[in-house]
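Hi all, a correction to my earlier message: I attached the wrong file for Eukaryotic translation initiation factor 3 subunit D. Here's the right sequence:
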Amino acid sequence: MASFSLPEIHDNPDGGWGPSSSNLPAQFKFKDIPYAPYSKSDKLGRFADWNDISGGQNVGLASAQGGARGGGPGGRGRRDGQQAFGSGTASAFAYFHAEDESSFSLVDTKTSTTRRGGALSRGRNAGRGGAMGRGGAQSRGRGGFTPGRGGGGAAQRGGRRGWRDWEKNNRARESSVAISPEWDMLEEIEFHRLSKLRLEVDDPEDLESYGRLFPYDKTYDRITTRTEKPLQLVDRIKYNTTTSDDPVIQELASRDTATVYTTDAILSVLMCAPRSVNPWDIVIVRTGNKLFFDKRDGGPFDTVTVNENAADPPQDPPTVNPNNPNEKIAVPEAPSINSATSLSLEATYINQNFGFQSVTETPPPPPVDFEKPNPFYGTEETEPLASCGYRYRVFDLGITEDEDVKLCVRTEVDGYLPGAGNPSVGQGLVTIRALNEFDPRAAGAGGAPDWRSKLDSQRGAVVATEMKNNSCKLAKWTVQSVLAGAELMKIGFISRVNPRDNTRHVILSTTSTRPMDFAVQLNVSLANGWGIVRTVTDMCMKQPEGKYVLIKDPNKPVLRLYAVPMNAFTGDDEEDEAGFEGEDVDAAAS
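and the right structure:
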């Protein structure tokens, strides 16, 4: 009869499973071999990759864990997208040199490039742009550098970067307002937190309406690149008065109409804050139980941005040496016409004049007067007024029925559509805006195609590029149109006559869109915008009476609330600076 004997059991005095390293039996063949984690699903591939340049030290057997196509330091990733088992742990097979190598210096500084077949093989990517290969960061197209698959762009030739790329990446934006060390920072909110807010708001209540509207000229809807029309300089007056200086808002505040008072330009920036890249600031004054959101004269609310959301947006010449921040760099007296500041002034000039030009002042059809005349036009004014209507509306931001948090906003419309109803009661109202093309081959163009060759045949591609490069600007225009209750938003496409001349422009085309439909295309959530406004309102209502400033960080997606003295932004230096900037805008417009 067969007998059975129990095997020898080696107890582990250190605790845990299995024998300890101190009393491992000698008959075990792997006694002095370190352990490496593995998985049965891993395939055995090459044992060593002499072409690996990833900087990893596990070049030997460890590279075989992921096989020829993954897991190891030189691999291209597993087919199933998973990392090789145990590849993140420290390898016992790694070689470490214990001697002092501080005196070692690398003589060969050539940049090596990785190709699919190794350093000496001629792989498929050898003729497709060097190191970047297919689908590189930039590839040259007919209209400059456009993303996508293609040949070798500037960043693909030999894998080198441009000689000025270090300056682009290291260049920092300056704040829209100088932050004094005496200011107290009260709150800080990151954009990713703002994007999660949500508040549903009902339709607004119309209070009063002011101004006169002219009808939109429908002939501008039939303009094509073959029948382009020159942009004219139209001498009209249009006011952009801040909240606290608005006499209508002062009267409404005296009657306790709402809790928060602002304008559509300021409110749209706050509602679209997560999309903003450029710095901005909002001055907030709390008086009693009321909040007033104001802008500074000559600040970012008086101009229009260009390609703010582009991957490589237009830049201004640096004023500080990046290698020595204490050293100032002399800025040329005549900046480039494609710098950020020059393009912003040009876009502001284009928007104003396109709005003035695209309405007809000669009846029929006749202009429409709102309930009351323009509240900012004084008796001493002699220049004609631009077509503009102001609608003062109240939105209820209360979360519960017992909560009384209302917002009064001054909205603007630029014209009305003949035959679409009575504009005095909000029918057929139109807002007019303009996109501008400066030079498709210039830095900061954002890969925009040539409008003269693409607008008529591939309008969708042009609009998609503008939605990508000017996401924040288009979102603000859309929100302003929705706040004003406009039925249509007219957008003109205006380009330079000569890319090297920023003083002459032509209208190439005009498109019409419904603001709510365009908001869906832009992925603009009004509920998220109202949630941001309510959060900022609650944040300010927790503070005592005084003056505050909400600043968007120039280089980070962060909002900060500062407490400032009551005399801030009212000094003589500020007024002189604002007047100087206003002269620059007038000079650019002329």
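Sorry for the mix-up. Residues 37-74 form one domain.
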